[in-house]
Amino acid sequence: xxxxxxxxxxxxxxxxxxxxxxxxxxxxxxxxxxxxxxxxxxxxxxxxxxxxxxxxxxxxxxxxxxxxxxxxxxxxxxxxxxxxxxxxxxxxxxxxxxxxxxxxxxxxxxxxxxxxxxxxxxxxxxxxxxxxxxxxxxxxxxxxxxxxxxxxxxxxxxxxxxxxxxxxxxxxxxxxxxxxxxxxxxxxxxxxxxxxxxxxxxxxxxxxxxxxxxxxxxxxxxxxxxxxxxxxxxxxxxxxxxxxxxxxxxxxxxxxxxxxxxxxxxxxxxxxxxxxxxxxxxxxxxxxxxxxxxxxxxxxxxxxxxxxxxxxxxxxxxxxxxxxxxxxxxxxxxxxxxxxxxxxxxxxxxxxxxxxxxxxxxxxxxxxxxxxxxxxxxxxxx
Length: 382
Fold this sequence. Notes:
Blueprint: E1 3-8, H1 13-24, E2 29-36, H2 40-50, E3 54-57, H3 63-70, E4 76-79, H4 80-88, E5 95-98, H5 106-114, E6 118-121, H6 125-141, E7 145-147, H7 150-158, E8 167-174, H8 191-194, H9 204-212, H10 214-226, E9 234-238, E10 244-250, E11 255-259, H11 265-273, H12 287-290, H13 304-315, H14 319-335, H15 343-354, H16 363-380
Parallel strand pairs: 1-2, 1-5, 2-3, 3-4, 5-6, 6-7, 8-9
Antiparallel strand pairs: 8-10, 10-11
Helix pairs in contact: 2-3, 4-5, 5-6, 6-10, 6-14, 9-14, 10-13, 13-15, 14-15, 14-16, 15-16
């Protein structure tokens, strides 16, 4: 039976890989809606190929152009926040892939949960900003939140059938990014060098987060919410081979590990097909070629963003939203050559220190903290 899906962020890396999975399984999935920020050219090509009912271009200045091309094909064009909300509440859609970048995904995810859609999340930011709220609402409306991040998908798969009291610790891995072995001159790191990830091909923002290890700090917060585990029972290990994506340590000392090639189509396909598994024609993992695995503990003195992620998770409330917002602003400034690589953690730490945390925040509290942190980040930059 064909499942109707929507893809938010369809022109990005996760979105494109989602559509590749759809192509490789004809008859399994029907794309009813797609959305992108402003890549109208690519969005138009996707709409012509998949014939969705609705297309959303977040930047409304492109909407008229798309309407002229797509309305004759019977495809409706919507725009902005209201357009995202409409896609997330389409009656025909059963599962929504969230792959938009940044905090913009928070309101649409809540709309989807309230419309009782299964939510598959690739972007970390909404769960970081409002994980407690999202998990509470998902439980209230009886809908699943399915992780697409390779590490969280790995944890999810390892935890299948495990009782909570049998789990001692969760472990997520990191390749270490492009600067794992670099010992000097962090002050001179350029955006070009930081964007050269050794293992993954990702968007610009998440690639910089990988270089600072902020991505692991965000993933710790995300995992704490998804799996109801305090941050002090979630460990990060550097694993340069990037074959083992996650491990679960059980109370008897056993370890369960998730191994796979570094290909995002695997966790995307699992989220799309869950609870089933589908065959595919992707390259398979050859353990003989891997030969050996290496692990090391991250150096939080060289990569302080990871420690900031743990701190925000422990402090809770609005702290993770503030961490995320300050980081987004700092990363954007670094990519635009306005600050140095080392100024990213300095900016985030400065904003966190100034913030007065609000416990048990609602949506308006989280959005207020997010807006405050973005303004404060500009003040904290050198």
